[in-house]
From TrEMBL:
Residues 677-699 have a biased composition (Basic and acidic residues). It is a multi-pass membrane protein. It catalyses: L-alanyl-L-aspartate(out) + 2 H(+)(out) = L-alanyl-L-aspartate(in) + 2 H(+)(in); glycyl-L-glutamine(out) + H(+)(out) = glycyl-L-glutamine(in) + H(+)(in); glycylglycyl-L-isoleucine(out) + H(+)(out) = glycylglycyl-L-isoleucine(in) + H(+)(in); glycyl-L-proline(out) + H(+)(out) = glycyl-L-proline(in) + H(+)(in). The chain crosses the membrane at residues 43-64, 76-95, 110-131, 152-172, 192-211, 271-289, 318-339, 351-371, 610-630, 642-666. Interacts (via extracellular domain region) with trypsin. It comes from Neopipo cinnamomea. This is Solute carrier family 15 member 1.
Length: 699
């Protein structure tokens, strides 16, 4: 088709579906750990990065299996089956009703979804990592040697399909997760968010197998990584055997392998090791980069996602691929030529250094943003403390005196005094006075570390009051809102929210909190009494808020209410994450693209798989670093952890810059040409000696 083998279209579609499956699943994974499995942020982050590290370790296994045993086609098919099974198990494990026999909305046996999830993730890591080094190489195998232009176009289409799959899935699966589904109780729809990627993976496998008869299948020819490892191993062993001073030293420690391996392989291994040595500091970059899907997504859960439409926290990850599409041509067509015109020698290693620095600055930006988020978070009482809020539901002002002589507060009508912190042991009682009226409330039975609301109103010749226990201990999760109702009306009311019954409230009683979605949506509040029915539309609650709504009275069918803010909505907008995403993406463009280009330019062609393995290994080690640093730091503030990572990468950036100054650029093609020339001369000498020997024998 237009000079292209038909088989490559099956491969491109296969890659699109596989990347959709992987990135779609990974986009919602951290929130699945946090909100479905109910793991804390640190455990969720640890398991997330363990999974990502495994995904980048298994390509080594996949490459060895493909090159030394099954071949690329059979490896892709067999591991894709494993991959599909893993996605299916993960989707099944996220079904809430699977073990919720008492139908209370939570799994009765939490070990079951955890076990299924871990089995599924291990199979996914084996599948996605195992086929990673095979699919693009298998696509390249479909072309003849004289089809370089078509092969180049194929790789462009291939990487376009990778980005398209990740981009679309990062939009789709968070929206699927945000839906509610379930048989007995409605929950976030993780089975659908994982099920659609599982279906796409099955489609990927079917499409790939459908093109089987069209593929050119190259037989396994051995894996160069194994040869390199054997060469290095023999050199070390041989050097150890000849460690005494009686043996002459050799120019390079790898030269000790010359007793068994040819000079060309040794020289090629030297070139590859020179590049791999520079890879040592690189994992620190990936340690920061891959936190987009963990810490940064968790950061977004405490932010305002109102962009005209409600944006899910896990959808903010889409900023990276969008910026990649924009920044790659801008950097290549504008920034680099401009730097060249300024006569600055912007070498590849300097670009990599700048990429590290930009990633470090991205985490400084994340830390500054986290400081602003922390300022908006509610403060809850510590051990030995109790918080009390005063809420005047009446139309007459009053004064509240905490005994013994702790504090005196004036409370205006229909107003509240926000939570005040007291030492629990000091609280005895409080007195409410309004004119000549007085009411006393005992506080001796209050619990430590809890919040209470003291609601009261002056009614006629008495002060009615109620000490309410506030059972909210944290900011509402996933941007949801909590609302409850307190009845300051003269009679019992039946409260209905969005056509669903909430509670029947006698005067001055309070309902339990009801969860409502975050965003701009307004809700219909309706009350009925023995004599009337009233309705009103609520305010827009935003994201992550909690409100107590006072039912005051009813005027000609319209309900009069007062809002009391228990927990303020998230006020820091998610758009403030864009600067840190921008810095990190700019760092990725000059780091990742340049790093691969530099690696391939500094090593012989047959060592590309070795360098690719080293590059993927650096990503895996970076994710392991996250586990170590986050686990060992024990920092209580998230902004401090961001600063720690930024500082570590900055130090590594300086170390890499120093290492880069000692690196000497080489031309592998020139070295290869010298070996080819030497081999031709050796062959010619052998032929000449052979002819001379033949002439001598005839004489």
């Amino acid at each position: 088709c237009s000079g292209f083998p038909l088989s490559i279209f099956f491969i491109v579609i296969n890659e699109f579906c596989e990347r959709f499956s992987y990135y779609g699943m990974r986009a919602v994974l951290i929130l699945y750990f946090k909100y479905f499995l109910h793991w804390d942020d640190n455990l969720a982050t640890a398991i997330y990065h363990t999974f990502v590290a495994l995904c980048y370790l298994t390509p080594l296994l996949g490459a060895i299996i493909a090159d030394s045993w099954l071949g690329k086609f059979k490896t892709i098919v067999s591991l894709s089956i494993v991959y599909t099974i893993g996605q299916t198990i993960l989707s099944v494990g996220s079904i809430n009703d699977l073990s919720d026999h008492n139908r209370d909305g939570s799994p009765d046996n939490v070990a079951l979804p955890i076990a299924l999830s871990m089995i599924g993730l291990i199979l996914i890591a084996l599948g996605t990592g195992g086929i990673k080094p095979c699919v693009s190489a298998f696509g390249g195998d479909q072309f003849e040697d004289d089809q370089e232009d078509q092969r180049s176009t194929f790789f462009s289409l291939f990487y376009l399909s990778v980005n398209a799959g990740s981009l679309i899935s990062t939009i789709v699966t968070p929206n699927l997760r945000a839906m509610e589904c379930g048989i007995h109780t409605k929950q976030r729809c993780y089975p659908l968010a994982f099920g659609v990627p599982a279906i796409l993976m099955a489609v990927s496998l079917i499409v790939f197998v459908a093109g089987s008869r069209m593929y050119k299948k190259v037989k396994p020819q051995g894996n160069v990584m194994l040869q390199v490892c054997k060469c290095i191993g023999f050199a070390i062993k041989n050097r150890f055997r000849h460690r005494s001073k009686e043996f002459p030293k050799r120019e390079h420690w790898l030269d000790w392998a010359s007793d068994k391996y040819d000079k060309r392989l040794i020289a090629q291994t030297k070139m590859a090791l020179n590049v791999l040595f520079l890879y040592i500091p690189l994992p620190m970059f990936w340690a920061l980069f891959d936190q987009q899907g963990s810490r940064w997504t968790l950061q977004a859960t405490a932010m305002n996602g109102d962009f005209g439409v409600a944006i899910q926290p896990d959808q903010m990850q889409i900023v990276n691929p969008i910026l990649i599409v924009i920044m790659v041509p801008v950097v290549n067509s504008l920034i680099y030529p401009l730097i060249k015109k300024c006569k600055i020698n912007f070498t590849p290693l300097r670009k990599i250094t700048v990429g590290m620095f930009l990633a470090s600055m991205a985490f400084v930006a994340a830390a500054l943003l986290q400081v602003q988020i922390d300022k908006t978070l509610p403060v809850f009482p510590a051990a030995g403390q109790t918080q009390i809020r005063l809420m005047n539901l009446g139309s007459v002002s009053a004064t509240v005196q905490f005994q013994p002589q702790l504090q005196s507060v004036d409370v205006a009508p229909k107003k509240a005094v926000n939570y005040m912190i007291f030492k629990t042991s000091q609280l005895q009682s409080l007195n409410v006075t309004s004119g000549s009226l007085k009411e006393t409330q005992s506080l001796e039975d209050l619990l430590e570390g809890k919040r209470y609301t003291f609601a009261f109103q002056v009614f006629g010749t008495a002060i009615d009051s109620n000490l309410i226990f506030d059972n909210v201990t944290s900011k509402p999760e996933e941007g949801k809102n909590l609302i409850r109702f307190v009845n300051s009306y003269v009679s019992t009311v039946d409260v209905i929210l969005d056509d669903k019954a909430v509670a029947v409230l006698p005067p001055l009683t309070v309902s339990n909190y009801t969860t409502v979605p975050g965003g701009k949506r307004q809700h219909t509040i309706n009350i009925t009494t023995p004599l009337s029915s009233c309705t009103v539309s609520s305010k827009k609650f935003g994201f992550g808020s909690a409100y107590t709504i006072s039912i005051n009275d009813c005027t000609q069918g319209t309900l009069n209410i007062t809002y009391f803010e228990d927990i303020p909505p998230s006020s820091v907008h998610m758009a403030w994450q864009i600067p840190q995403y921008f810095l990190l993406t700019c760092g990725e463009v000059v780091f990742s693209v340049t790093g691969l280009e530099f690696s391939y330019s500094q090593a012989p062609s047959n060592m590309k798989s070795v360098l690719q393995a080293g590059w993927l290994l650096s990503v895996a080690v970076g994710n392991i670093i996250v586990l170590i640093v986050a686990g060992a730091s024990k920092l209580s503030k998230q902004w401090a952890e961001y600063v720690l990572f930024a500082a570590l990468l900055f130090v590594v950036c300086i170390i890499f810059a120093i290492m880069a100054t000692f690196y000497t650029y080489i031309d592998p093609n020139e070295i290869e040409a010298q070996f080819n020339k030497q081999e031709k001369e050796d062959k010619k000498d052998q032929d000449d000696h052979g002819k001379e020997a033949e002439a001598d024998s005839k004489m």
